[in-house]
Amino acid sequence: MVQQTINHLESNIRGYVRSFPTVFKSASGSWLVDQEGRRFLDFFAGAGTLNYGHNNPVVKKALLSYIESDGVMHGLDTATVAKVELLQGIEEILLRPRNMDYKVQFTGPTGTNAVEAAVKLARKSKQRSHVVAFTNAYHGHSLGSLALTGNQYYHDISYGSHNNVSHLPFDGYLGDVDTSELLEKMLADGSSGLPTPAAVILETVQGEGGINVASFDWLRRIERICRRHDILLIADDIQVGNGRTGSFFSFEPAGIEPDIICISKAFGGGLPMSLLLMRRECDTWKPGEHTGTFRGNNLAFVAARVLLEYWRDNQLSLQIQDHAKYIEQTLKQLLRQFSSTCSEVRGRGMIWGIEFSNPEMASSVCRKAFGKGLLIETSGARDQVVKLLPPLTISREDLSYGLSIIKDSIELLLEEDKKPSVCFLPKMDALDFGLPIGSFASF
């Protein structure tokens, strides 16, 4: 009945329901439960939206109290108690301790709204139209963000205009070659074909691109180049910020100071919200020049404000760092054990990837893991990377259990592969972004 309803009424665009073909009923912490009572450990975390787990108790308490008191839910950009308290918390807990002097712009319900606003603001501020992004970048699905995203599918002429964007190689894209030198060379050469851009936008760790980790030295060099050429540096911290790499902002350990920072996903604790942090001199907007109906989601403001308390001290950061060491050690053991099929493991903090020599294997591992009660997805241009994105608040016991499911799934698939009657799933197109096909396609 459920499958029939979904097939009949929901668009073919549906994706993750094909990866996770069940009907979820409840969720708490690192676990979900479907309507049949089966429990699933979550190494997907809403694509990085649920860093603090499902139905975080401090968020639940704050929201129930706010709703019970008839707090304002929707306010556009009017002043509300919820907004003022969040702004004060951002300054007190995030900005002042880091000696950051930024203004805040609430941009809309999702990450791509923040990216669109950042690029529009950069172009307005610098009175230039060009933007530099990087290979394997992912910045969203609205038209401006798609122009910045590297996946070739989205650069088909039918997908909209991609003018005024150049993609240069990300750190590591050319092996040991320092790709920042290419950016410097092209900016210095008036015949390179690269106009001086308004901005350079980057992720410190490319999540959808395959868990590609930029070195701190490379990030510092990119920042210096931007300063020399009067270019704004935009950090897309939507997925890998909010503590995902250990510090609240993913760029903190590199010591860089972006001009504009895009924040969304986990910041609202699962409720839709995105925002920009911008240097004061970048705030060249006129009143009402960039708007959005849902830029005033007060329920998300309430959730975000109580979640900031996790960052009043370094306890969560220390736990993330401890979990990160355990994940890295475990994955490197897997790499040694399954060297014939696993080609590399990489990551930072609590975002990690296992790259497989055969991309079909990554999709098969995710499918097998789901059958054993683990939600996990793939990433990368060929869906060749199994992407680990557990909640930051996960217990060591649950973390260990999830990693053991991944190991067991690889072992079972390798054993099955030895049998002539068994084959892997059909090769997935890069468009699928980790969505298994075959028997799930009709869900």
Characterise the protein shown here.
The structure is a single chain. The chain is α/β, with parallel strands linked by helices. It folds into two domains: 2-56 and 314-440, Aspartate Aminotransferase, domain 1 (Alpha-Beta Complex), CATH 3.90.1150; 71-311, 3-Layer(aba) Sandwich (Aspartate Aminotransferase, domain 2). The protein is 35% helix and 16% strand. Helix 12 (359-371) crosses helix 13. The longest helix has 23 residues, at 315-337. The chain is globular. The termini are close together. 45% of the residues are buried. Residues 422-440 have low confidence and may be disordered.
How far the N terminus sits from the C terminus, by CA atoms, comes to 11 Å
Largest sheet: 7 strands, mixed
CATH class category name of the largest domain = Alpha Beta
The number of distinct structural domains comes to 2
The radius of gyration over CA amounts to: 22 Å
Counted beta strands = 17
For this entry, give a set of tags.
7-stranded mixed β-sheet; 4-stranded mixed β-sheet; globular; 17 strands; 443 residues
Provide a compact summary of the structure.
This protein is α/β, with parallel strands linked by helices. It has two domains: 2-56 and 314-440, Aspartate Aminotransferase, domain 1, CATH 3.90.1150.10; 71-311, 3-Layer(aba) Sandwich (Aspartate Aminotransferase, domain 2), CATH 3.40.640. It has helices spanning 2-9, 16-19, 45-48, 57-68, 81-95, 111-126, 143-148, 180-188, 216-228, 298-307, 315-337, 359-371, 396-417; strands spanning 24-28, 31-34, 39-42, 102-108, 131-134, 165-168, 199-202, 205-206, 212-213, 232-236, 260-263, 274-279, 342-348, 351-356, 374-375, 377-379, 385-388.
